[in-house]
Write a structure and sequence with these properties.
The protein is of the alpha/beta class. The chain folds into 2 domains: 2-111 and 306-360, 3-Layer(aba) Sandwich (Rossmann fold), CATH 3.40.50.720; 134-305, NAD(P)-binding Rossmann-like Domain (Rossmann fold, 3-Layer(aba) Sandwich), CATH 3.40.50.720. The chain is built from 11 helices and 15 strands. It has helices spanning 20-28, 47-52, 61-67, 101-110, 131-148, 178-189, 201-210, 222-231, 252-256, 307-336, 354-360, and strands at 2-5, 32-36, 56-58, 70-72, 90-93, 113-116, 170-174, 193-198, 216-219, 234-237, 263-266, 288-291, 294-297, 344-347, 350-351. Strands 3-2-1-4-5-6-14-15 form an 8-stranded mixed sheet, with helices on both faces. Strands 9-8-7-10-11-13-12 form a 7-stranded mixed sheet, with helices on both faces. Helix 5 (131-148) crosses helix 6. The protein starts with a strand and ends in a 7-residue tail after the last helix.
């Protein structure tokens, strides 16, 4: 199979979907790898390393897309890439189609088979290809929140960990999954007072055991959320429903009760956001906006700010799936690993993931 690696075109996205080591593994198993010039430079992988691994370096995205059977990316294609879609093309990347109806319909209309990293789900309900980026985003959410709490950034002027005689910041985390757990690690490490709101009693017991009582857990319901949001210096949205739009847990009226200069970081913004006042995604060069006196951080590709770490963490878990798709083809890969079917969002012009179809208001057609 011919595997293509185009350069990411989303603004300030420096990750890459395949390292030179991954390209070498594909080459050793009999496949061709086409790399757009400069695709890995943002993550510290120059073209020379890909060439040394046996990849072919091409000058344009059109060449890579047009000559490849399987395209591997990091972020969902944007409008300028829709023209590269064609029947029978395999696309393997993060998609987040529930929040991107135009992309979803362009993929279906073109006959692309689109497999999403974020909906591949193991029998134990874990998301192996989303986990590493959730770990990065969870940890970054606290770093960014701490920065925007500084007064010259428009924040309350609060140090996350406080100092002796001065209380620490109150960090409220909505969701106790991978993002929330990693956010809690960072916030506790910096000395903050941390509360995690979570629906699952089992998960709350797990967090209580892991953190040995150093954080507090609350059952996630509208009353507890409203009470916690009012006290927050830093509010982190960390909820996810695989394939579906993020549930809106924090209303605009709740945000209005927050302290002036408090900060919201919504990691779920690429799935539509879990806070009502997160009404648009932002970028790394203009990451925040103010509403009701509260700083809103809504960057949809947070791990793109640390591309070296993020690329290595992501490709560690995607390469086996890439090798399987390249060696066995679409149907053969699904037969060998039924888990891969949960990643199929679009195939044969139809939506093949139930939550994606529901979010788009379209018909779900099982594989």
């Amino acid at each position: 199979m011919i595997v293509g690696l185009p350069r990411e075109v989303k603004k300030h996205e420096y990750r890459v979907a395949l390292t030179p080591a991954g390209a070498g593994m594909l080459k050793e198993t009999g496949h061709r790898v086409l790399v757009q010039a400069g695709a890995g430079s943002g993550s510290g992988f120059p073209d020379e390393e890909y060439a040394a691994a046996g990849a072919e370096i091409l000058g344009s995205a059109a060449d890579v897309w047009g000559r490849s059977d399987l395209i591997v990316k990091v972020k969902e294609p944007i409008a300028e890439e829709f023209g590269f879609f064609r029947p029978g093309l395999l696309l393997f990347t993060y998609l987040h189609l529930a929040a991107a109806p135009d992309l979803a319909r362009a993929l279906a209309a073109a006959g692309v088979t689109a497999i999403a990293y974020e909906t591949i789900q193991l029998p134990n309900r874990t998301l192996p290809l989303l986990t590493p980026m959730s770990e990065v985003a969870g940890r970054m959410s606290v770093q960014e929140g701490a920065k925007y709490l500084e007064a010259f950034q428009g924040g309350r002027g609060v140090l996350l960990g406080g100092v002796p005689g001065v209380p620490p910041a109150e960090v409220i985390i909505l969701g106790g999954g991978i993002v929330g757990t990693n956010a809690a690690k960072m916030a506790l490490g910096l000395g903050a007072d941390v509360v995690v709101l979570e629906k699952s009693a089992e998960r709350m017991r797990y967090l209580d055991d892991v953190f040995q009582g150093r954080l507090r857990t609350l059952t996630s319901n509208p009353h507890n959320i409203a009470s916690a949001v009012r006290k927050a210096d830093l509010l982190i949205g960390a909820v996810l429903v695989p394939g579906a739009r993020a549930p809106r847990l924090v209303t605009e009226d709740m945000v209005k009760t927050m302290k002036k200069g408090a900060v919201i970081v919504d990691v779920a913004v690429d799935q539509g956001g879990s806070i009502e006042t997160i009404d648009r995604a932002t970028t790394h060069d203009n990451p925040v906006y103010e509403k009701h006196g509260v700083i809103h951080y809504a960057v949809a590709n947070m791990p793109g700010a640390v591309p070296r770490t993020s690329t290595l963490a992501l490709t560690n878990v995607t390469i086996d799936y890439v090798l399987r798709l390249a060696s066995l083809g679409f149907e053969g890969a699904l037969a060998a690993d039924p888990v891969l079917a949960s990643g199929v969002n679009v195939h044969g012009g139809a939506f093949r993931h139930p939550q994606v179809a529901e979010a788009l208001g379209d018909r779900y057609v099982p594989l």
